[in-house]
Write a structure and sequence with these properties.
Strand order of the largest sheet: 1-2
Helix content: over 70%
Pfam families: DUF8198
Number of strands: 2
Protein name: DUF8198 domain-containing protein
Shape: globular
Number of domains: 1
Organism: Leptospira broomii serovar Hurstbridge str. 5399
Largest sheet: 2 strands, antiparallel
Strand content: under 5%
Number of helices: 10
Radius of gyration: 17 Å
Length: about 220
């Protein structure tokens, strides 16, 4: 089964993941100013951007271009976003295959229990842990970016490089991350909770233990 056939199911995996994220982190999302925008950012910028095909085709070219126009720390952070996109897509496509093989989707929707079962069937637990780590680092990068003085000047050469290789979608992701973070006083409580809860669920799935809504994914 090729990726185009899998894409609608991958998007269903993303939607189910966001439903779980909203529930698992409701204690934070509903009480800390600015956190309510996090699920939308995850869904529309990290997991399922509208112009995904353009992004995938252009990101590596952008990374090579950025080496000549941005500092090492900025380039390394952007490269991590590229790697996060790749590992997330790979895990979601593998999960989508399991969903199809086991008929786990009902009318375009994947129930939470079915999502957990599919993730457990995929395995790849070390990749899951690496994904969790990179999400945390990427969120920290966006938060630090939002606190930089003259950030528009810093972003200018990155925008030029992105336009030259057709990777404007990455700039959209960075600007969305900047916009989200600029409304948040401290992102660390979410990052720490995310990494703790997500890793606990991965360990439960790996050990064959029962899981619950309150665990991460």
């Amino acid at each position: 089964m090729d990726l185009k056939e899998l894409e609608p199911v991958r998007l269903a995996v993303v939607r189910s993941t966001i439903v779980r994220l909203r529930f698992t982190y409701s204690d934070l999302l509903t009480t800390i100013k600015g956190y309510d925008g996090i699920p939308h950012f995850f869904e529309n910028n990290l997991y399922a951007p509208a112009n995904k095909e353009e992004r995938d085709n252009a990101l590596e070219n952008l990374y090579e271009k950025l080496k000549t126009v941005a500092g090492k720390a900025m380039t390394d952070s952007i490269h991590q976003i590229i790697l996060l996109n790749k590992i997330t897509d790979s895990l979601d496509f593998d999960t989508a295959r399991i969903v199809i093989e086991n008929n786990l989707m009902d009318d375009g929707t994947i129930r939470q229990e079915s999502l957990y079962a599919a993730i457990g069937e995929v395995g790849r637990y070390e990749d899951r842990r690496e994904q969790i780590r990179m999400v945390g680092e990427t969120l920290r990068f966006f938060f630090s970016l939002s606190k930089l003085p003259m950030v528009k000047l810093i972003m200018a050469p990155i925008k030029v490089a992105a336009s030259m290789v057709g990777a404007t979608s990455l700039v959209d992701t960075m600007e969305a991350g900047y916009g989200l973070s600029s409304k948040i006083k401290d992102l660390n409580p979410f990052i720490e909770a995310f990494q703790d809860r997500e890793n606990r669920l991965v360990t439960k799935l790996e050990d064959g233990q029962k899981y619950s809504y309150s665990d991460g994914i």
